[in-house]
Amino acid sequence: MATRIAYRRIYEESSPQDGQRVLVDRIWPRGLRKEDAHLDEWLRDVAPSTELRRWYGHEPSRYTEFRRRYLAELGDAEHREAAAHLRDLAARDGITLLTATKDVDHSQAAVLADWLDGKRRGAAR
Questions:
Q1: Residue 72 burial by Cβ neighbours in a 10 Å radius (0-12, 13-18, 19+)
Q2: Model pTM?
Q3: How far apart are CA 70 and CA 14, in angstroms?
Q4: In what helix (H) or strand (E) does residue 7 lie, and over which residues does it extend?
Q5: What single DSSP character describes residue 32?
Q6: pLDDT tens digits, residue range 65-113?
Q7: Mean pLDDT (the chain, rounded)
Q8: DSSP string of 62-98?
Q9: Which of 11, 57, 106, 107 is the one with CA 20 to 30 A from 65?
């Protein structure tokens, strides 16, 4: 059976279908108490660098370049261990990547879900 990889906003209600719930933001979501997050893990070191996050500014017109730069960052020393850990989590169970970003389809969670799916299938991405 294929492992489920999903992504969505952390503010949405949790579901039994979520599997492992992993927050992939560097900064804790505003207005959310930690005990209400229902997280299995917070992997802030897999999030984009502060510099990249600030440059991107969640501008959809910059998404393609953001995606390219972020995928490059996942292989650097700062991100490598967290990225490997996330791959391990995704390989074991279903996983839902969580972010506070309003536009989840143009977020690091979307990039990570696609990247993880490609790694799972053995594709070079």
A1: exposed
A2: 0.90
A3: 27
A4: strand 5-9
A5: -
A6: 999 999 999 999 999 999 999 999 998 878 999 999 999 999 999 999 9
A7: 91
A8: GHHHHHHHHHHHTTSHHHHHHHHHHHHHHHHS-EEEE
A9: 11
| Cα(63)–Cα(84) distance, integer angstroms | 23
Residue-level pLDDT at 119: 64
Q: What gap in Å lies between CA 27 and CA 100, rounded to an integer?
A: 9
Tokens encoding 91: 């390989």
Single-letter amino acid code for the residue at 86 = L
- The amino acid present at 98, given as its one-letter code, is L
The three-class DSSP label of residue 9 is strand
Contact 116, 86 (CB under 8 A): yes
Estimate to the nearest angstrom the gap between the alpha carbon of 110 and the chain centroid. 7
**CA separation, residue 26 to residues 3, 6, 50, 94, 121 (Å):** 25, 19, 8, 22, 27
* Lookup: tokens for 53: 């996050």
CA 46 – CA 124 distance, rounded (Å): 19
DSSP 47: S
Average pLDDT, integer, range 49-59:
96
